[in-house]
Write a structure and sequence with these properties.
Number of helices: 11
Number of strands: 18
Low-confidence stretches: none
Strand content: 25-35%
Distance between the termini: 10 Å
Order of helices and strands: EEEHEEEEHEEEHEHEHEHEHEHEHHEHE
Helix content: 25-40%
Length: 350
């Protein structure tokens, strides 16, 4: 088969790979569309050394059509349209046994630890596949994982209707969180911050009440102004690796200053930088910093929301490119093109 293959740091090209063979409990999926995620960029840049072995076939946000089923598979048949949850826990470590499978000590992901959706065919466990509703276009299958992440992040933050929320970072992940937040959680006030006008404009379209361009305003001062000095109930930090203008602090440090007494901070970005945090302020406020990693069974809810038309993947997917242009696609993402939010690859277009 053809695949977008990562041969080394920052070296991804179209190449040839063996067709996968399925086990008795797996299905063979013909991958049709796969999204380029922020984590894919980290892997591309060589930040997952020791975990990802080259050559690697990335792509953990993808969907396609079932081409073959293993002898023990009962839930799917050839021709079914599916979206694939990429996480594969061990189900036996201490963490899994408490139900926290997304933090499994040996968690593996299709597209990171195992071959993923940038290949034309993928072997996927039956229990990680979900039927795509008839009214959800296959091009949107790559967004199911992103919306699952959004739901998980909001659940980790225990976001309640009517609460005030500040979202730091309106990239692929931040906007996915915002889409779910504005159309399922009924926030009382939503403030979104970023450096790029296109992303902030998209945040407004998705329902953000206020957007703050970091080049023009101090986000901490703006949040305090909008909340009459109280602070917001929840801050969601979705920036990861950050660049702040002027003398502004890093996003997690900003979050501690933005939060109200007793509030919650959810951090979900995968930044490599160390960030000073005002722990005295955090303690005095008795606020909480909560981490969020991948998903924990949110795929069915994400699919139901998409089927009902509550979410807006067309606003987030700014580019659809053929897999033969995978090198160019990663180049666009790597240079942080200001007009790009989400690139989806047409996997069969080789």
């Amino acid at each position: 088969m053809k695949a977008g293959i990562l041969y080394g740091d920052s070296d991804i090209r179209l190449g040839n790979a063996p067709d996968p063979e399925i086990k008795s409990n797996e299905v063979l999926v013909k991958s049709l569309f796969a999204g380029i995620c922020g984590t894919d960029l980290h892997v591309f840049r060589g930040e997952f050394k020791g975990r990802v072995a080259y050559p690697a076939i990335q792509g953990h946000e993808f969907g396609g059509i079932v081409e073959e089923v293993g002898r023990d598979v009962t839930r799917f048949q050839v021709g079914d349209r599916v979206a694939i949850d990429p996480i594969i826990p061990c189900y036996s470590c201490e963490t899994c046994l408490t139900g926290h499978i997304n933090a499994c000590r040996t968690l593996k992901l299709l597209g990171i630890d195992l071959d993923g959706g940038f290949g034309q065919y993928v072997a996927a466990p039956e229990f990680q596949c979900y039927k795509l509703p008839d009214n959800v276009p296959m091009e949107h299958a790559s967004m199911v994982e992103m919306y699952g992440l959004g739901q998980h992040i909001l659940q980790r933050g225990s976001v309640q209707p009517g609460e005030t929320v500040a979202l730091l970072g309106t990239g692929k992940l931040g906007l996915s969180v915002l889409d779910v937040l504005c159309h399922s959680s009924s926030p009382g006030l939503t403030i979104a911050t970023d450096l790029l006008p296109v992303r902030l404009a998209t945040a407004q379209k998705l329902g953000a009440d206020v957007v703050v361009n970091l080049h023009d305003e101090d986000p901490v001062e703006r949040v305090q102004e909008l909340t009459n000095g109280v602070g917001v109930d929840v801050v969601i930090e979705a920036v990861g690796h950050f660049h702040t203008p002027g003398n502004q602090e890093g996003p997690l440090a900003q979050a501690v200053k933005m939060i109200r007494n007793g509030g919650r901070i959810v951090t979900c970005g995968l930044g490599e930088q160390l960030t000073p945090v005002h722990f005295k302020t955090l303690v005095i406020k008795e606020a909480a910093i909560i981490a969020s990693r991948v998903t924990l069974g949110e795929y069915p809810r994400a699919l139901r929301m998409m089927a009902k038309g509550l979410l807006h993947p067309d606003l987030l997917i700014t580019h659809q490119m053929p897999m033969r242009d995978v090198t160019e696609a990663f180049g666009i993402v790597d240079r942080d093109d200001p007009d790009t939010i989400k690139i989806v690859l047409d996997v069969q277009a080789v």
